[in-house]
Structures are given as structure tokens and as C-alpha cells.
Amino acid sequence: GTVFVVQWDKVYLQGKEELGSFTFQAALHSSGRIVFGYKEIPVPVLQISASQHPVKAGLSDAFMVLNPSPDVPESRRRTIYEYHRVELDTSRISSLSAVEFTPLPTCLQHQSCEMCVSSELTFNCSWCHVLQRYL
């Protein structure tokens, strides 16, 4: 009830199976914390060829657009647009390591007008009495 964990277990690089398998996970906590845990990283991430296996580590906001494919009318081409990326230093990813992201305070934490008005956040939060929530 307080954490959702996704694990990738025994993942091999295509065509490089002899290097060994990767096991890692992402844990999303109800408090907003995100933890990436790396159990088995058989080779340094920097040594993975980006041309064959694009490596991204970190967080980003993104949205997806589905466009009709000109070659196959029934299919759609997926394009993902990323913004506000926070990248991890991949040289620090190794077996038995973890990275934790802790959320910064935002207007979302305010549950009353008093909390909103007395907040020392640098955002321009304001409380809406009609909706009984921050804006």
C-alpha cells in the first residue's frame, strides 16, 4: 500500500549475452520518493554501446504522440518527447548500489488556507476558498 516496485530480472544485452545479466528495480513510494536499486550490473554502464543499446538513467517528464505511419496505414508511429530531465551519472551505477530521489516541497502539500498562506515556499501558491484547495 505504500510502495510500488518494478523489477527487471536477468536482462541481457542483445548480442552480448556472454557479458552476463542485469537485475535492477524502481520503487515508487507514496511519499513521492523514487529509489532505483541496482542488484547485478555485470559491466560498467559506460561500456554499453549507445548505438546498439541506448542507455538512459534518471527521471524525466515526457508525453507521447501517436502518428499514422506513412508506410502502413493501419499502424501508428510512437514519438516520445522528453523535457525536464534529471540524469544520473552512469559511471556511479554498479552492482549493489542505489539512487534515491526525494521530492521537494510544493503547493500540493497544503491541506488548508492557513497552511498555504503561512508557507515559506518560493512558489506563488494561493488558496481558493470556493474549491477548498490550492491554486
Please render the helix and strand layout as text.
Layout: E1 3-11, E2 22-29, E3 34-40, E4 58-68, E5 76-87, E6 97-101, H1 113-117, E7 127-128, E8 133-134
Describe this structure in words.
By secondary structure, the protein is mainly beta. It has 2 domains: 3-103, no CATH class; 105-134. Helix content is 4%, strand content 41%. The protein contains 1 helix and 8 strands; from the N terminus they run E-E-E-E-E-E-H-E-E. The strands form 3 sheets. Strands 1-2-3-6 form a 4-stranded antiparallel beta sheet, with no helix packed on it. Strands 4-5 form a two-stranded antiparallel ribbon. Strands 7-8 form a two-stranded antiparallel ribbon. The model has no long low-confidence stretch (mean pLDDT 85).
